[in-house]
Amino acid sequence: MATTHTLETADADLVFDVHGPAPADSAQPPLFMVGQPMAADGFATLASFFPERTVVTYDPRGIGRSVRKDGRVELEPEVQARDVHAVIGAVGGGPVDLFGSSGGAVTALALVTAYPDDVRTLVAHEPPLLSVVPDAAAAERARNAVTDAYLAKGSGAGMAAFIGMTSWPGEYTDAYFAQPAADPVQFGIPADDDGRRDDPLLSDRSWAVSDYRPDVDALAAASTRVVIAVGEESLSVFTGRTAVATAELLGQRATVFPSHHGGFLGGEFGYAGQPAAFAARLREVLG
Fold it and tell me: What is the pTM of this model?
């Protein structure tokens, strides 16, 4: 069972769900699960494996049920970190444990940087940070090409380009850029253009997320235990490489989890991982 709440702030109404026991009735601090651009619904399966804990999931501003009131569309880690800080306060304050996935892992790194007392243990799973990999300039070019394909031909072309980018093994070489444009049909994606250009994954709205550079000194000074996680199936592809490089930047080795970038997913989006094994590993790392 989960209860849904809305936290009204000056520039966004943030919708979050509280699963399991109330914080006062849990022996452990709340466990936050944060994604971006994925909303709370992507954590339904993973949350179900922690019935004894208060689990909090939320929709980032401008995504899902959380409505922006500031007239802006870009998704910035520092702004989202303030939002998560506000939600932590709304459920009783920190420190909490936090699992951040993809862009949510970037939000979580920004959160610990700005609010070091909010988080006891952070597990940042595959933060897609361009600047940390050796081929950063080529990675930025590849990301920009995804957005170019989306703006030119719509979501089918954009998603095909995104899959091609994120499944490419190793650095982005001349061979990568010499490929023909990815065909949506090849991936079972409709090629029709719906006319929209506001997808937070494919447009430039989330570029601030992948452009984010972790503040190594601030993270080292925080009391938070920071764990950078990587899926065992992701090690050679982009988000696996960024996870390994981020861990090295922080003076650690990436902690390996089962499955892939969405390894905690059940049937939410047709991209199932190994949620039971993933949850067991998360419980072990948090413990």
Answer: 0.97
